[in-house]
Amino acid sequence: MPIKIPNNLPAVNILEKENIFTMDEKRAYSQDIRPLRIMLLNLMPTKIATETQLLRLLGNSPLQVEVDFMYTATHEPKHTPHEHLVKFYETFEEVKNRKYDGMIITGAPIEQMPFEEVEYWSELCDIMAWSRKNVYSTLHICWGAQAALYYHYGIPKYDLPKKMFGVFPHTVNMKEKMLFRGFDDIFYVPHSRHTEVRREDIEKVPQLSILSESPEAGVYAVIDKKYRHLFITGHSEYDPLTLKTEYDRDVAQGLPINIPANYYPNDDPQQQPVVRWRSAANLLFSNWLNYYVYQGTPFDLEKLTASENLRGIDGDGI
């Protein structure tokens, strides 16, 4: 089934050229199907690029998905046209009385700032608190995962001696969990961050399980048994050239940056990057939508109650 997205969203043309099945609002309303309602809280500065990356993955599913877009009212984005925000985005105040099957909270390039110093931290805390009763399953990405682990459980982040930058091999710790159904024994994920969360802090919280990690990149996937929240520290959604764009930008600005690991053939930035993570990314998002959203969410979203009272397909909320 297709992904239903707003008419005239810039991502539509890109996705259609890639044979991602999209559906405009008019056609979607003609089908007698209750689509999954997904909220995308987009904290990235390049919002249009992030929209396209995530819609590409959400659209590769047999489920019909309806996506709403939210941005923080307490921060004025500088890299996205105001007209785009007005046309396609809403604020928390505008959506807080709705309920959603799922929500994605993206990363943001602010991981070296203390959480409390982030301009929109208070608003983000309100949104994360709201998600407990109004969203069936929430997927947090990179800084969004660090922020949620800190907010919900007080788990700190730590500065890294150098940026975790590249495409790294990962393994699955709990193969029986449906999030990683169909994954290879070793799979690759892009990372681009200056901070990390640590296994020893997560292991102190009995409500959390570490589902996947990397010898080089550390903890990758964590699940919250009580609230059905998932925390993903990497960027499976990245396009083939996203790391190249970040690398070229930092080089041009004279910033200290290593060549992204396991990305260019022979570590040569003059060559075309090798994509190693696309199949795992598609599996991750389709498994989340199917097993952690669709299989558990109530048909009538108005019956959605505090998520600690609900259980996912794996049992015990995981």
Automatic annotation (TrEMBL):
InterPro entries given in the database record = Class_I_gatase-like (IPR029062), HST_MetA (IPR005697), MetA_family (IPR033752)
Q: Which UniProt keywords apply?
A: Acyltransferase, Amino-acid biosynthesis, Cytoplasm, Methionine biosynthesis, Transferase
Q: Does the keyword Cytoplasm apply?
A: yes
- What does the record give under GO molecular function? homoserine O-acetyltransferase activity
Q: What is its EC number?
A: 2.3.1.31
Chief subcellular site? cytoplasm
What residues form the catalytic site here?
A: C142, H235, E237
Pathway, according to UniProt?
A: Amino-acid biosynthesis; L-methionine biosynthesis via de novo pathway; O-acetyl-L-homoserine from L-homoserine: step 1/1
Q: Where is this site: Important for acyl-CoA specificity?
A: E111
Establish whether keyword Transferase is in the entry.
yes
Q: Where in the cell is it found?
A: Cytoplasm
- Please list the reactions this protein catalyses: L-homoserine + acetyl-CoA = O-acetyl-L-homoserine + CoA
Where along the chain is substrate bound?
Answer: K163, S192, R249
Site features described as Important for substrate specificity, chain residue numbers: S192
Q: Give the protein's function.
A: Transfers an acetyl group from acetyl-CoA to L-homoserine, forming acetyl-L-homoserine.
UniProt similarity note = Belongs to the MetA family.
What this protein is called in its record is Homoserine O-acetyltransferase
